[in-house]
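Quick review question:
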């Protein structure tokens, strides 16, 4: 889709929204994010992903329509990563209100030739941020998280990734930083020393509740991943797992936003309706 067609479509899609979903502070960062964030791994990668169904990567027109719909429904928060294939590059190309969105990206994980590898060095961290700025066509990045390999404490204590992100924050290239952690110990350290933690919370896993509690105490941002059990929530809780999942996660006062990835407009609308049903709407 050409840029003129994208802009025309975006103008046509601007509708009056009476009840948009709520926004919450991302800790003490000064950034407000919609309680439902849009995950974009499916915008650029369909290899080595743990979803219940196979999918095709959507074309530019489909992505543009989904982004416009998300904006119309009150979503202002997007989660992406270099490891999500062409996701960052496509967002940079297709977002027509690029600086109105809050974009969260990551460093550390590299996905090439169907396999992931990791580099948490200062040099690679800096290079990754520079590449993300270029691909997303931004002057700064809102949130940058270390994309943990699972070995949180070694990354924290034996690599320079977080220290380099702190330097880049001081230079004004990023507004907030932290980690998409995979352990309780790692999540607690991130909450105590960084701005934002991306933690796992869902109907079947609440081991990181202590991380959420500490984040609330210290006024740090919490972004929840895998809230819908990576697409398997629909069969949980007697078939009401999606509804119960949103209620379970978003009722936690520490949570700033819950990331849900989709390329299906019907699913996106349904998710918004559920969020509104439980009262997570703009005052």
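Suggested answer, residue by residue:
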């Amino acid at each position: 889709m050409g840029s003129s067609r994208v802009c025309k479509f975006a103008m046509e899609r601007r509708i009056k929204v009476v009840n948009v979903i709520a926004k919450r502070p991302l800790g003490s960062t000064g950034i407000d994010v919609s309680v439902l964030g849009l995950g974009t791994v499916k915008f650029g990668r369909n290899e080595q992903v743990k979803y219940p169904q196979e999918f095709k990567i959507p074309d530019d027109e489909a992505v543009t329509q989904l982004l416009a719909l998300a904006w119309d429904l009150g979503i202002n928060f997007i989660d992406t990563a270099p490891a999500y294939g062409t996701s960052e590059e496509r967002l940079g190309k297709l977002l027509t209100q690029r600086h109105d969105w809050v974009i969260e990206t990551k460093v550390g994980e590299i996905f090439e030739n169907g396999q992931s590898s990791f580099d948490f060095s200062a040099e690679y961290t800096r290079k990754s941020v520079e590449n993300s700025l270029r691909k997303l066509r931004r002057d700064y990045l809102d949130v940058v998280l270390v994309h943990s390999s699972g070995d949180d404490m070694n990354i924290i204590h034996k690599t320079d990734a977080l220290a380099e992100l702190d330097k880049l924050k001081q230079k004004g290239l990023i507004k907030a930083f932290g980690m998409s952690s995979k352990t309780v110990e790692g999540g607690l350290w991130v909450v105590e020393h960084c701005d934002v933690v991306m933690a796992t919370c869902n109907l079947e896993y609440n081991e990181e509740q202590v991380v959420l509690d500490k984040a609330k105490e210290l006024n740090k941002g919490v972004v929840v991943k895998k809230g819908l059990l990576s697409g398997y929530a629909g069969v949980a809780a007697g078939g009401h797992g999606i509804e119960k999942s949103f209620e379970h996660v978003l009722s936690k006062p520490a949570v700033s936003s819950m990331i849900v990835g989709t390329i299906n407009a019907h699913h996106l609308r349904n998710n918004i309706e559920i969020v509104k049903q439980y009262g997570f709407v703009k005052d």
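Why it works: The chain has one domain: 22-277. The two ends are 37 Å apart (CA to CA).
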